[in-house]
Amino acid sequence: xxxxxxxxxxxxxxxxxxxxxxxxxxxxxxxxxxxxxxxxxxxxxxxxxxxxxxxxxxxxxxxxxxxxxxxxxxxxxxxxxxxxxxxxxxxxxxxxxxxxxxxxxxxxxxxxxxxxxxxxxxxxxxxxxxxxxxxxxxxxxxxxxxxxxxxxxxxxxxxxxxxxxxxxxxxxxxxxxxxxxxxxxxxxxxxxxxxxxxxxxxxxxxxxxxxxxxxxxxxxxxxxxxxxxxxxxxxxxxxxxxxxxxxxxxxxxxxxxxxxxxxxxxxxxxxxxxxxxxxxxxxxxxxxxxxxxxxxxxxxxxxxxxxxxxxxxxxxxxxxxxxxxxxxxxxxxxxxxxxxxxxxxxxxxxxxxxxxxxxxxxxxxxxxxxxxxxxxxxxxxxxxxxxxxxxxxxxxxxxxxxxxxxxxxxxxxxxxxxxxxxxxxxxxxxxxxxxxxxxxxxxxxxxxxxxxxxxxxxxxxxxxxxxxxxxxxxxxxxxxxxxxxxxxxxxxxxxxxxxxxxxxxxxxxxxxxxxxxxxxxxxxxxxxxxxxxxxxxxxxxxxxxxxxxxxxxxxxxxxxxxxxxxxxxxxxxxxxxxxxxxxxxxxxxxxxxxxxxxxxxxxxxxxxxxxxxxxxxxxxxxxxxxxxxxxxxxxxxxxxxxxxxxxxxxxxxxxxxxxxxxxxxxxxxxxxxxxxxxxxxxxxxxxxxxxxxxxxxxxxxxxxxxxxxxxxxxxxxxxxxxxxxxxxxxxxxxxxxxxxxxxxxxxxxxxxxxxxxxxxxxxxxxxxxxxxxxxxxxxxxxxxxxxxxxxxxxxxxxxxxxxxxxxxxxxxxxxxxxxxxxxxxxxxxxxxxxxxxxxxxxxxxxxxxxxxxxxxxxxxxxxxxxxxxxxxxxxxxxxxxxxxxxxxxxxxxxxxxxxxxxxxxxxxxxxxxxxxxxxxxxxxxxxxxxxxxx
Length: 934
What we know:
The protein is an alpha/beta fold. The protein is globular. Helix content is 39%, strand content 13%. Residues 1-18, 51-60 and 73-82 have low confidence and may be disordered.
């Protein structure tokens, strides 16, 4: 085409930048109905890239950028190939194919075992191109390679280097064009090659020497001992050190890690700076006598400081049980608490890093739950860097079709559109680049990002296993495959970066540090101050004195504050009635109900300058319509929280309706509480039995964390409990499970029966300096029971009564039977006794079942030493509830020569019946049984 004609065509072309809006509108019309545009436009749009195996076109955001690039080409009057627009479009299609599917042909497996078909989208012929076109110049569109046009041969080579080398990037599933363009810029501008100085390469090598050196040292010194070695995934060590250094340079002050077993000892010594002599002592059987049960080496946590160009960064490695992925929400909860304390809402100052196994991240549901939380208001932390140590073997199962259903173990991350950077663990420089991009993406967009470190494990699941029994072909390759340290050392020697003598010197120096039991991390620094100050809460016990009483006038002042809302904030009529009643309660005109007493407890905490945090699936209003801490404007849906408006300078009050999860949310709140001891943190189950789904958190953290790891926690859990005929799943919070977990004064289990009791129980959890978990069997029907009311004076006393003796005017000398009970069944017994006029039966409520209040119970029984008949009455079946776990406590408290009997439902496999008529019959029977004298 003559130059003058070409110029005229370009100036009038539909590809001119001034027509971009018109083109976008045409394309949207084409997507909705291809017949709505002309045949010429159908032909142009039909040549645009398609998703493999689908006829669905990209939406306009992606196409728009391609047209902009073409418009830019037109404006610059760049001459395209002689084949015209058709091949130019095909070239752009080729670029997009590499962005979408290059990772599927990337060199990711160090052992070369992956059998991956060639992706036809990445072949020239699939796009109507060939090597004959290599010398032809094409516009590269939005390819961030630093030039507008390239010869096809150079372009094809650059695409394969960028997307099919040691890094395979998955990011085109992200809908945000800004995020995709950012990632393209970072990858394409350097063709996925790190640019490291000799000093930086030396640091990487030091990390590999350390990773390899420690494992070999432990293998020689403690042969056969379990250590879940990192060998094969050695690049994790330089990766983590780069991550910390770069985070510190960006202003991060704390990094919190969570990881399971694989490589944990290596991370403790070579990243966290744990003295290797202490690790050797642990292998030798020495341990901290101060801990109760203690725990195995590869579950232990650690804290230290790490010097970076931006100053010292505090490191914390969370304690982790064998339930692998459960630590992830714990870590993120701890990070949220640290951010809240620093008043940092964007996540810049604290970085969460979670390290996963390949089978675990794909197989365990808490991973999905934690991803789902990542952008939710109550749980967001500005993004998490997630690292998968992908050794391609789940325990002994290496077949991917046994461990997952997707192509990669990281497929789950796509649910939140997290970019996934797969990287070959034998290419440590690619690992460093992947780390830099991942951290910078997290910091830029405040979203999760995944690094899939594809590696292998040199030994079996543990060092006593024989992996060849189940992976014979893999371990033939492993046995002859050089270590990452050796491969990288040879590379540096070959390129002239480091002489072999220097490498030998570095290796010998690391071995010397181990021999002398010295810290191996040059960047390690002693902690100048603990990130979380637990000092005021250490060394306290249950019976330590505390004063939670309040002046009645102060209580009235707070009551008025939490029962008031703006006049221009119209609320629902039912909520208005509740708040009108609360105003009467605040003035003393009416006794307090449960919801008001509970809210008033929170008011006293924030008034004292401390934080209250409540989460649960219906926490704002309360599942049973009682709390109403959040008032919804009926006209514009805005919200008002009286508890955030108690006074100027008050402590924060946060209440959030949580995601529909129990295990991840409870684990998050446990992590939060371990990093925030001063305030009141509460998780509320919608129904108490929902906590079943979070049992691993109760078992492995809440009940045993202090015994295993010396970790204190003041988390409060409200578990609605009580038999109201709502069926097997919505009656019992499984009280027996928590009592069975009780030992060593590890936690409290309470069943409060009055508003004053819940008020003083919650305040006690903050005012008393001891910090241990509190399990509350919270009520349903008692929230509005006419007898379950309290006065302001009862609240102001500040006393939670572990045992409540007889409250009716009954002559103790006339009593022939004493009933022990907990919870709402008390009111049924009370009402029936009054109806029967049975003044010879006393009822004693045990409001705290653990630690069992022996002295208080004996004090309540001092007037009944003549009584022979004692009964424990419960709603739960005999094999459930408190009977089996607590009857020895009841027997120890009653006078000698007397006996204790049981009144309640018969043993049952189910917690409750499903028919209201049967429920009523059973309930009446157990009340009658308890009130019937022998």
